[in-house]
Amino acid sequence: MSSVKRVYTFGDKKAEGNGKMRELLGGKGANLAEMNLVGLPVPPGFTITTDVCTEYYKYGREKVIEMIRADVENAIKGVEKLTGMTFGDDKSPLLVSVRSGARASMPGMMDTILNLGMNDDAVEAMAARTGNARFAWDSYRRFVQMYGDVVLGMKPANKEDQDPFEEIIDEMKEERGVKNDTELTTDDLKELVVKFKAAVKAQTGEDFPVNPWDQLWGAICAVFGSWMNERAILYRKLNNIPAEWGTAVNVQAMVFGNMGDDSATGVAFTRDAATGENIFNGEYLINAQGEDVVAGIRTPQQITIEGSRRWAAAQNISEEERVAKYPSLEETMPEAYAELNMIQDKLEKYFTDMQDLEFIIQNGKLWMLQTRNGKRTGAAMVKIAMDMLAEGLIDEKTAVLRCEPEKLDELLHPVFDKKAIKNAKVIVKGLPASPGAATGPVVFFADDVATNFEETGIRAILVRVETSPEDLKGMLDAAGILTARGGMTSHAAVVARGMGKCCVSGAGELKIDYKKRTIEIGDIKIKQGDWISLNGSTGEVYLGQVATRAANMSGDFAKLMDLTSKYAHMKVRANADTPKDAAQAFEFGAEGIGLCRTEHMFFDGDRITTMREMILAKNEEGRRAALAKLLPMQREDFMGLFRAMKGHPVTVRLLDPPLHEFVPHFEKEQKELAEELGISFEEVRERVESLQEVNPMLGLRGCRLGNTNPEITEMQARAIIEAAMNVRAEGTPVHVEIMVPLVGNHKELRYQKNIIDSVAEQVFAERNDRIDYMVGTMIEVPRAAVTANQIAEVAEFFSFGTNDLTQMTLGFSRDDIGKFLPTYLDKGIIKADPFRVLDQNGVGQLVREGVFKGRGTRPNLKCGICGEHGGEPSSVEFCHYAGLNYVSCSPFRVPIARLAAAHAAIKAEIKSKNE
Amino acid sequence: MSSVKRVYTFGDKKAEGNGKMRELLGGKGANLAEMNLVGLPVPPGFTITTDVCTEYYKYGREKVIEMIRADVENAIKGVEKLTGMTFGDDKSPLLVSVRSGARASMPGMMDTILNLGMNDDAVEAMAARTGNARFAWDSYRRFVQMYGDVVLGMKPANKEDQDPFEEIIDEMKEERGVKNDTELTTDDLKELVVKFKAAVKAQTGEDFPVNPWDQLWGAICAVFGSWMNERAILYRKLNNIPAEWGTAVNVQAMVFGNMGDDSATGVAFTRDAATGENIFNGEYLINAQGEDVVAGIRTPQQITIEGSRRWAAAQNISEEERVAKYPSLEETMPEAYAELNMIQDKLEKYFTDMQDLEFIIQNGKLWMLQTRNGKRTGAAMVKIAMDMLAEGLIDEKTAVLRCEPEKLDELLHPVFDKKAIKNAKVIVKGLPASPGAATGPVVFFADDVATNFEETGIRAILVRVETSPEDLKGMLDAAGILTARGGMTSHAAVVARGMGKCCVSGAGELKIDYKKRTIEIGDIKIKQGDWISLNGSTGEVYLGQVATRAANMSGDFAKLMDLTSKYAHMKVRANADTPKDAAQAFEFGAEGIGLCRTEHMFFDGDRITTMREMILAKNEEGRRAALAKLLPMQREDFMGLFRAMKGHPVTVRLLDPPLHEFVPHFEKEQKELAEELGISFEEVRERVESLQEVNPMLGLRGCRLGNTNPEITEMQARAIIEAAMNVRAEGTPVHVEIMVPLVGNHKELRYQKNIIDSVAEQVFAERNDRIDYMVGTMIEVPRAAVTANQIAEVAEFFSFGTNDLTQMTLGFSRDDIGKFLPTYLDKGIIKADPFRVLDQNGVGQLVREGVFKGRGTRPNLKCGICGEHGGEPSSVEFCHYAGLNYVSCSPFRVPIARLAAAHAAIKAEIKSKNE
């Protein structure tokens, strides 16, 4: 057994392990080793392997301690040597951190324990060295508290009580008459330590361990013990992580930036994280702890002279004052700075990416605590990738992979002005339903949006409990949309994303009173005309007007898009219902329309009345009369789409939603409609009632409409074919795909195709000319995926409608999911809203099955996706692997989908090379 | 080409073809050949093969006629020889029928043409031979009409008009001032023939063919032509029948039972079709046509002397009068009778089943027109099968297969008295939702059922627009249930079937006025207290009281059930929610409870108030308080179930339906509830509203309830475990299976199982004792089937909930399907209501996938089905092939399911032997 290596040391730019040994050293241990090997001055330490964890459960605590005692003692000696401090020493005590580290980070396991080695001697030594007794004692009482909770298992007396240590603090604060922990004095903290220890003794019957070695063994074993606590076990069960994996333990020397004026702490970026500019930058504080830099009590100083000067200029601070009060690190500690600068350069080249560094200078010596790829804005992301490509640091594929598709969104929508937003007051938070920023006066009815605009020239914010297709026109004219109900795929959310319009949905705290035209949120009352602002990217709603600025698409953006076209295999189409949407999509590089929802054409102006006339007709004859009026309108719309797409494929879906979505549900409007149509109010009411369904999502809609009322399909088929022939006659090529929705059975499609074909032949005969068209179907009912082999006998293309497919496969109504989704996300039962991120394991299997079976029948079957998932990067990647020919999404998601498609192709290529 | 045989003759107990040659001769042609080979005196004729149909489309009409002319002429000569008549003769003209006959019977193809060969000469000859000029001329005008429509393609002048011949008849009837065709005289019919021919000439420009050979070639080619008509093509497309199959043409001599007093026509059964008694029986008429026997104008006479005497006794007719007026065939035509009797005996032995015969005696010669297995009542079916088994005619397996599972239903429910029902007036027809017969006074509210019973001792018929769980108690006490809305799987239908209670659902013509307590159906008005009667087996509703008689289960029934147990592989369980249901199920042979819907226990008496208190509670504490009250009630129910099932498995499903099903939706009841619970009405109303969902079927229900409110699962788990331990302590063995509903994701089940296990351990600790139990899940969300491998890691058994699985896989809400199901059935888009008959191709694939994947993880996984399909025979057969261990159905369907399970096993055995 002694031949097995159980402890791996690191430090002084050397390490016994390396970055690839995640299985043995855990993720954290492997990283620490790798940072040393790269040449960073990392606080030294060691990792106890995951195998020891397994041995811990096999042989027990005592035996395992014996097995690793010598190695751990040697490793601590090594750390002492490198730091010049001694574990357990009363003058220059070595303090260490102890952390767990499994292969993958895993909630439920032990937190970090800091400052281990602390005791009555060490605290005095630390007070002396830092000249900050309060800090030393605060560190001490925190250590006792953390160690007491985590290692010694201190528990509240009753289930309802809070942490026993917090209770002691609260008592003391009450005695002292203070509110915050920070108001406690050094003496108070000393008293706390005494009381904490007494509490430990009272509950555990044992003295708090003062011997650092006892502390260390306790902490190491606590990490192993936490591997088998209830939460960790449950997490593993849910995520199929075998118990045999075990966790490693990382022990590392503490370093401090508050050891005097030759000490400092700071963070730095190798490039500008906001703009992407290629300049080294960052902030630091002398004689401070890490948290001081971000706490805002002291003003952090810039690292470089150049950065410092820029900063001073922006603050109207003279060079003199700057040098006196806010000198850069380059000026105050030139040696440490030089080393840091060298390191940052080396790291960026090593990782070939912008790095975010944390460092501490302890008594003049630089320690790197962390380096990682730096977070950045969308704009910086694109610029850095394109710059690094130009610099030859990375190749084209890497440059593409460096850009996260989702972050492109920031570049496509207006955003709030940075300064303005700082002072804005968040009054409520909903779901970030459609990104961007919007500000405007509140209105409550779709009509009022137009009225307001006509009267004032200002676009309003439309606030509704939820929106319906009747609100479409108002939504189009609004600055943004806010709803109290509905999720990420509610009507408001879907339509707004399609329009590229800012929307916050499902802000449940809003109490909307349509009659009084007011909103209440707790104490806040907002009336019609009051200004609010929406952040569609975060879901935040602000009181008042917050300035916005338009999206800025730099030349780098265009370069990136060119690269995506070069590498993506899948085409990207847009879901667009109007010529305007289509034009926008075309501008964003859409290579066709994957979904035109014809029903959206029925809400404009007089059309809705004609549509209602059709729905309320008593018989086929009456329906046909109304449809005849709709025909020219639809034809005109289709012509606009065909013109906009210039020969790219246009997939037109036949009427899909249940008819009750088109009829008015309130008495007043029903009476108006009755008058308009010259029928009785009772007749209207009865017909509307008869359209009600218990589960409309599973009712009379989709091709079930066209199969029970074939005249609807006849009209739509005629409008499409005639439009296509008209546009071709104008000299523009057309590519027509007619899509039948909600097919679950090949016979349903056969009936619809028969109607379409026969109408087409009629039109051809009338015009003595022909045009090519394809008839295909949505695969959105699970049965369609399961029987795709039969359906492909009729269908000439498939388009996976993953919104409905998700609803039916999971049995989740997207309108009702809000009642349990938060709980499910909280508990980790599901990882993401399945209407946003495709459920690859469930719905995805049906997509794969559909493609596989469909192509079994028709080998070259064109397959695409037109659900909301078509614009979500991980889902797009899945579509690539599922063998789809294209994805289709909202126009504003097209660039994101293009980038995601390129990612998928490049990753697949890399993967296949590695296999 | 001349070496190919294209025409197959039959007659005189000889045939060139045989019963196995369906591909070449079509179904009908093969049968005619076989009947000859069996030795029946069948009117002679011939079959032109299906290959000729193919040649017809390859070579064209003229060429094909040349190819078969000689063979057809020879075949006609053969028929002439056997019948002693001559085709085209003016004294003894041979008339023939011409029929199409494909491999499988196929709607859309040509109908039969009778009396071909008829012309001005033949009609006179026939009038002379039959002594019935009117009959001869009526046959003639019918022939011209049929031939004109079918062969000559006569069409109405305008699309809206009716058949041109019918128009001529109508004109004439108007001229003559008569209403019915039968009132037209022989001269009128003569005039019609002239006018018909003139109409043909006017529209087609050609004379009506008088030459029988022209007629024959026209008819043969019309059959071939009909193979490619629009309806036939569509039918083939929908049913995947290749066009290459083609149709055969059958030409057969006409024979007549009205050729004088030595002629007769009749039908006969080899055993009694009503009782199953083994006596030859039937009816005949001298000098009559087939339709006269059933038309009721003349009283048909009995075939056997014994039958004749029995009949006379029942009619109070003396033997003297009988012999004089109604002699049997045995007496009037002893020779023909002797031959018929010999044939019937031979046929029953040949087919080893009760035969239904049609015969004609033409001038003393017996001709058999048809023999087929006779239809019979459920009782006769069982008796005949058991008798034939005892007689050694068939073996056990055949006897089992002879009994149709679905027909067993007749034996299990009360039925209407046969005589009483004859005079009953059908006022409306709904869906046959739950079989049986019921009669009683109408009431409209569940409460009134009990009140009525208490006051009058009479069980009422509960009439509702639709029922809800609140009506449960009333339904249980009612004689039967009638609803205006809802399909075969509506609440009313499902619950009634479960109770074995007669129910007619979805009688859409009912206008129910709850306020006035009346029903209107057209002109008929029924008020509370008026009697109506329901036929749950046909869906018919009668006005007034119709006498019923109780089900009669003979000893043969028990014998049959024993045989099913001997041969079935699958076990049959029952869906039962109460100890009473469970006892009934046990009596019918259920081997366990496959589904106990715990929610049904929440509606009884005070429980619903406590349940509502739980639902309306503001927080977990309130919910727990209410649940604590429900616990002892649930425990008591479960104890009853465990006792009733005596150690057989009992599968208890945790709470499933959306909570809004438990709360009152009308103001009055909401106010009452508010008072009862001591909270405000507004609070009740708001909470009820907040429970509303857009698509409740896909909302917060099933395990989503238990995962958002774990305290519900805790209570139910405790009630189950405690009940099981209590009953075991009484000395009764128990077998506990806890079932988690609506799981779509293995983590959902994991959470629920954790709760159940931890409650169980608590109970075990409290009692210092343990009991075995299993935790499994419904597979009813498509995702569960698709990810069954993961789910089986947690689930210890699967039960396929095919009701919900059908809803989600097909996207059909069972509450809304009525809007398009009739159209879909009409058009043949689907073949049966998928909530009644399992959709094997769609839903069935998911069941197979679920079983396959589940057993991949857990090889011995017990799999069952507990949807409504568990009692439907074709679905049960599917379950056998899918490898399920059991099916579970309503108690009253248990015998049916047992028989179906035996069928499946026997058929599978036969199939595997044949492979």
Description of the molecule:
Two copies of one chain form a homodimer. In chain A, 48% of the residues lie in helices and 16% in strands. Chain A is of the alpha/beta class and 915 residues long. In chain A, strands 13-23-22-15-16-17-18-14 form an eight-stranded mixed sheet, with helices on one face. An eight-stranded parallel barrel of chain A has the order 25-26-27-28-29-30-31-32, surrounded by seven helices. A six-stranded antiparallel sheet of chain A has the order 2-1-3-6-4-5, sandwiched between helices. In chain A, α19 links the parallel β15 and β16. The radius of gyration of chain A is 33 Å and the shape is elongated. Chains A and B meet through α9, α28, α30, α31 and α33 of A and α9, α28, α30, α31 and α33 of B.
**Major sheet strand order of chain A:** 13-23-22-15-16-17-18-14
Class of secondary structure makeup of chain A: alpha/beta
Beta-strand percent range of chain A: 15-25%
User: What general outline of chain A do the C-alpha atoms trace?
Assistant: elongated
Helix segment tally of chain A: 37
Oligomer: homodimer
Runs of chain A in which pLDDT lies below 50 for 5 or more consecutive residues are: none
